[in-house]
Structures are given as structure tokens and as C-alpha cells.
Amino acid sequence: LQNWRDNNFIRLFIGLNILLFSFFVEGKEFDYKFHWLYVPVAKLSINFNEFFDTDNERNHPEIKFQLSTKGPLKLIRNYQSTITKKFNKKGEWDYHLIGIDRGKPEEKLISYSSTSYPIVHTFIDDKGGEPLKTDELKDLWLIDPVSVLLKTIQRLNENKACSNEFFVFDGKRKYKVTVAHVDDENLSTDRLRVFSDPVVHCQM
Q1: Calpha distance 36→41 (Å, rounded)
Q2: Which residues contact 86 (CB under 8 A, 6 or more apart)?
Q3: Which of 9, 132, 153, 164 is the most buried (most CB within 10 A)?
Q4: In what order do the strands lie in the sheet with 174-187?
């Protein structure tokens, strides 16, 4: 499963990158199914929409991720979550996760800003953990986990490359994500079952 995750999961970026030109349009939704060999292991749905801010009388983009385990993996690790990223104004956004992990509820509501530390509003951990304190967040530019995916897609779209580093804060821990550009490949329709075209192979 580790090898599958390293070599195939990041290829999801490529499929998303191809759809990026229409991704940031109101009402778009994409569904992805992950298999290990021929066994289903997970499903991911991504929905992009806009919501109207009545206070400021303007629209704000909203992205919703819905992730769940499937098949035999669900018996080992029953996981499902809905993650919403709402942009409040330039440089500020909210990350809201509601889910079930191994039968235990979890919820995280965190506000992020490009000019200040994240603020944890709600933190319910499936293992009963506590959020990091503000004085432990020494990096000013911290982002949420789904922003790693979105920023990598944007970089692929702009530069056809993905090498980058991100400092991530998910409420419980702070960590660095390194995305490496491994090489360029030509994948056949038989392998991806979606398209046949040159792609960028990235590894997280």
C-alpha cells in the first residue's frame, strides 16, 4: 500500500491538472476512485462552488473534499470525512473537517491567514488529543492540508513542474511536506484508464 501511495496517488495531480481550466468554475464536481491492483480502497469527491457573503455583499469560493475508505481497507480503517475550505477574503480562509475515524468522531475548524498564525476554533480529535498552542507555531506562513494539493495543481498548471515545500498545520501537528518532481512520463490509456498523454510524475 505504501508503494501504491507513493507511485500512484500523486498521479491524481495530473488528472486534476488536466481539469484545472474548468475546475475553478461554479458548480463543478469531480469523483475519483482509488484501487490497489483491482481492489477498491478509497473514494474522493471534490466540489467547487461559491457562497454569497451577505455582510460584505460578495461571493467567496468554496472547495469541498469528501474522502472515504472502500472495500477491504474500510474493514481495517473505517474512515470518512468532509473537508471544506472557504475563502473569506484575500489571504484568509477557513478549514473545516468533520469526520469519523475508526468509529470515533473528529472535527477541526481552523482559520488561516497569510499575515498571522492559524486560529483553532474547534478541535475534537478521534484519539482525544489537544491542539498545538499558538506559541508552538513558529512559522508565519502555515497552510492547511488540502492547500498542498491545490497549490501543487496550480504549480503544475503554470510551470509543468511540482517541486515545492509546504509547512502545514492541521491543528494537532505541524509538519513539512516536500513535493519532488521525479520525471516526465508517457502513460497509456491502459494504465490510467482516463487518457493517454505526457504527464509529470510527482512524489510527496
Answers
A1: 7
A2: 51, 60, 61, 62, 93, 94, 96
A3: 153
A4: 164-169, 174-187, 197-203
